[in-house]
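If it is no trouble, can you show me the amino acids of a protein and the tokens describing how it folds?
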Amino acid sequence: MKKFLSVVGFTAVALLSSGCEKLSDKPPAFHNTDVTGVDYAKGFALTDHTGKPRTLEDFKGKVVVVFFGYTQCPDVCPTTMAEMATVMKELGPSSDDVQVLFITVDPERDTQELLSHYVPAFDKRFIGLYGDAAATAKVAKEFKVFYAKVPGADPGSYTVDHTAGSFVFDKQGRLRLFVRHGQGPALIAHDLRQLL
């Protein structure tokens, strides 16, 4: 009888152990849209706000958040950037393993100098990226991002309609999430922790 109980006990422990392993192999539960495995947003070749050429490869080893916007955006862009600054605070020391990139869809007005003041104002670690009209169109196509100039009262006062979400890459440089605008810092911080 003792032998039978010890076999039953051993089997129960083995089953529980294998169950625990399966639990730890469970895919992360994201609040935002899981786009793992999609075949786009593979990279970019742009210039950062310090004048340095940059590609997505430069940021391997970090979780990367990419947002498309422009400095004269009246609403979505500043609120998204402020939200990401709050996310960085919520992540604490882990935030050093996160890189936020702001890609302008207004290369006509968003100069290197303007980006160098605007983007780091939200968090000194944030990087602004820009290219000429052709490079901007190319990266927008690669990320399937919509943007279109909307005329204003005069030629220089136009606005730019654009996709309002952000793209999140894991530390290996794979696209994992699409973050819809207005999710709130807590949900974004939760998802980034899953990737950290």
Summary: The domain at 53-194 is CATH 3.40.30.10 (Glutaredoxin). Residues 2-24 form the longest helix (23 residues). The mean pLDDT is 89. The helical segments are 2-24, 76-91, 112-118, 133-143, 185-195.
